[in-house]
């Protein structure tokens, strides 16, 4: 495992739990079926900046089993089957395997949806990468490699003091006031509870 990936909870083997319970004469009464599903979690990334530039920008999402979760300007948190949000991007998509984890999708959505409401997307301050980093924290206790947030980190600081991103974008980038109170580190800490 990567150094930055520190598992919060080890994966659960439900079949082993059922077998052990039967061996000691305990009837689980459906408790094992109520346990979270054990699903493969993957970080999905695609470069959105030509590789010739010294700093890369990325679109990212999280794949939980066969379901992709991403955060977009147009739809807020979007759930699709497979890595649909990466379709049509020119660069090769990379799948980073984060392992198999017990996942309660209802608990995941209850924790993450309030932080990433529709209409609160901001290209530099609250985007698909901040969503994916928060999601990875909830699901695995780890973090997304910071290299995938490098471009927006530089852009955020530069624009904060010089408006350079607004100027370079010809005014296309305007900070979203609904993202003013968003703090990635606070969001990640909330996901780890």
Describe the structure in your own words.
The protein has 193 residues and is an alpha+beta fold. The chain is built from seven helices and five strands. The protein has helices spanning 14-23, 31-34, 105-112, 128-140, 150-162, 164-168, 184-191; strands at residues 37-47, 58-64, 67-72, 76-81, 93-103. The protein has a five-stranded antiparallel sheet. Helix 4 runs parallel beside helix 7 (184-191). The longest helix has 13 residues, at 128-140. It starts with 13 loop residues before the first helix and ends with a helix.
List unreliable stretches of 5+ residues.
1-9
Question: What is the straight-line distance between the termini?
Answer: 22 Å
Number of helices: 7
Molecular shape: globular
> What structural class do you assign from the helix and strand content?
alpha+beta
Percent of sequence in beta strands: 15-25%
User: What is the mean predicted local confidence, pLDDT?
Assistant: 80
The strand count comes to: 5
| Largest sheet, spatial ordering of strands | 4-3-2-1-5
In helices, the fraction of residues equals: 25-40%
Q: How would you sum up the major sheet?
A: 5 strands, antiparallel
- How large is the radius of gyration? 19 Å
What oligomeric state best describes the polypeptide chains here?
A: single chain
| H-E order | HHEEEEEHHHHH
């Amino acid at each position: 495992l990567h150094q930055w990936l520190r598992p919060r909870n080890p994966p659960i083997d439900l079949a082993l739990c059922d077998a052990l319970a039967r061996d000691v004469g305990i009837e689980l009464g459906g408790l094992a079926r109520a346990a979270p599903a054990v699903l493969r979690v993957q970080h999905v990334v695609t470069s959105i900046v030509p590789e010739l530039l010294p700093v890369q920008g990325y679109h990212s999402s999280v794949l939980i089993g066969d379901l992709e979760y991403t955060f977009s300007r147009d739809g807020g948190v979007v759930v699709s089957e497979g890595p649909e949000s990466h379709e049509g991007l020119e660069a090769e998509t990379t799948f980073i395997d984060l392992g198999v984890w017990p996942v309660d999708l209802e608990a995941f959505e209850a924790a993450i949806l309030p932080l990433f409401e529709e209409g609160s997307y901001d290209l530099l301050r609250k985007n698909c990468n901040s969503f994916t980093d928060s999601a990875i924290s909830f699901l695995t206790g780890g973090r997304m490699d910071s290299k995938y947030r490098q471009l927006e980190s530089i852009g955020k600081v530069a624009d904060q003091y010089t408006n350079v991103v607004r100027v370079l974008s010809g005014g296309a980038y305007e900070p979203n006031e609904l993202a003013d109170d968003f703090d990635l580190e606070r969001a990640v800490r909330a996901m780890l509870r």
